Amino acid sequence: MRQQHTGAADEGPIVCGTTVLVTVAGDPPVPLPAQLRYTATDPYAVCLSLGVPSSPSVDWVFARSLLAQGLGRPAGSGDVVVIPRHRCHPDTVRILLRTRHGAAVLEVASHAVTDFLRRADALVPTGTEHRHIDLDRVVEQLTAGSE
After folding, report:
1. Number of CB atoms found within 10 A of residue 61's CB
2. d(CA 107, CA 146)
3. Which of 5, 28, 64, 110 is most deeply buried (CB count within 10 A of its CB)?
4. Whole-prediction pTM value?
């Protein structure tokens, strides 16, 4: 049972390179290179990669809808929370990342997030994500370890 794909699924990933300010446990903010990535093959998710190019990145994968909702109002309640522009930093979006070991607040330029989401929506319009899922591949991945 194969879902029909639109031509957009064959296009490469959307990558938005940016710099984020990372604050951990009250320390001063530290600038860190980051990338937002989106592919039509995983249409509900975005990936936020943090790190310098010469070392392995730290990747956070979360819902594209969470990132979009967070532009207008606080969104999320688990490991990832997105908070819209703040009066002290009106040109940024804050992303709170939590693990059992601690938390970090990332400040990302709101124009970079808005542009990234616009490009993702052009590739896979919101509400059409289900048309881009290869159900055969998903079932194959789910059953691969059961033999």
Report:
1. 13
2. 42
3. 64
4. 0.80
